[in-house]
Design goal:
The protein has one domain. The chain contains eleven helices and two strands; from the N terminus they run αααααααββαααα. By secondary structure, it is mainly α. The longest helix is centred in the middle third of the chain and has 24 residues. β1 and β2 form a beta hairpin. A two-stranded antiparallel sheet has the order 1-2. α8 runs parallel beside α10 and α9 packs antiparallel against α10. The protein is globular and about 50 Å long.
Length: 288
């Protein structure tokens, strides 16, 4: 049951990310045009933030998580609602609801886990669309995936960092893990970082190399999430599995394959132009 729930949530994030990418343009992409420098900065932040969270007081960590979630949700909903300022209210309601559920019912309650999981799916859609719509290249995503794979091996398999971080954040609102309790009394989870990389792949590869590349990226990402779950459920693996070890190399392999097949990536401008041409052709076909 837990594996089915977590996998369904991961699938929802990937599919919703793809739908959002096709239908909505973020009003003000807050990152500008993403470059290799931004990727290097993200990798550095990913390495340092866990140590920061382990040392800061709980109330400050919760506040940082809440502020980050609020800003991302506001960006997500802004092109979806009218008037656009309603996005601020929607984002505030979602964040406050998550905090209230954690405080009133506890971070281990089913109600909190269900609500928090939905929030994380929305955050994954928001972050990955910011990346893709800010011009992240498939090359940059592949490098990010490779770097995260190395980091995940060190932090999860070789060091107790990931376990300590999850224990630190488990009792706080907006816990960055899609999780569900198992029948054995434990829980099965997928980190927000894993969910972000899985959701980003289909968007960035679609933009860079076309619809087929995006769809294949979605299938590969979900397979990379499903495999560790099957290993854990079958008893062949115990403990936290570094999912980035599968997702990262998959990103690199796909990038090299599609680069060889296409010669180069499309720019964001070329993607928008090509998509507009496809939609125009479809409209003419319907009219005829």
């Amino acid at each position: 049951m837990a594996a089915a729930v977590v996998f369904a949530l991961a699938t929802s994030a990937v599919l919703l990310g793809m739908v959002y990418f096709r239908r909505y343009r973020i009003t003000r992409p807050p990152l500008g045009v993403m470059t290799l420098g931004d990727v290097a900065f993200m990798l550095g932040a990913i390495v340092l933030i866990p140590y920061l969270y382990l040392r800061l007081p709980g109330w400050l960590v919760a506040g940082l998580l809440a502020i980050s979630a609020f800003g991302l949700l506001q960006v997500l909903f802004e092109p979806m609602v009218r008037p656009s300022r309603m996005s601020w209210l929607i984002a505030a309601i979602i964040v406050v609801a998550d905090i209230v559920l954690a405080r009133q019912l506890g971070a281990a309650s089913l109600a909190y886990l269900a609500g928090n999981d939905v929030v994380l799916v929305l955050l994954a859609v928001a972050v990955t669309n910011v990346w893709a719509q800010s011009g992240m290249r498939a090359r940059d995503l592949a490098l990010l995936g490779a770097g995260l794979a190395i980091y995940d091996v060190v932090a999860t398999a070789l060091l107790p960092l990931t376990g300590e971080l999850m224990a630190r954040l488990a009792g706080l609102p907006l816990t960055p893990v899609v999780a569900w309790p198992t029948d054995a009394g434990g829980w099965l989870g997928l980190g927000l970082g894993d969910l972000l990389l899985a959701t980003a792949g289909p968007l960035v590869f679609r933009k860079a190399f076309g619809r087929t590349a995006g769809r294949i990226a979605a299938v590969i990402a979900l397979a990379a999430i499903a495999l560790p779950m099957l290993l854990v459920l079958s008893g062949r693996y115990a403990g936290a599995f570094p999912v980035m070890v599968l997702l990262g190399p998959a990103m690199v392999t796909q990038y090299l394959f599609w680069l060889r097949a296409n010669g180069r990536e499309r720019t964001t401008i070329e993607y928008v132009r090509d998509e507009a041409g496809v939609e125009e052709s479809r409209s003419r076909g319907v009219e005829e």
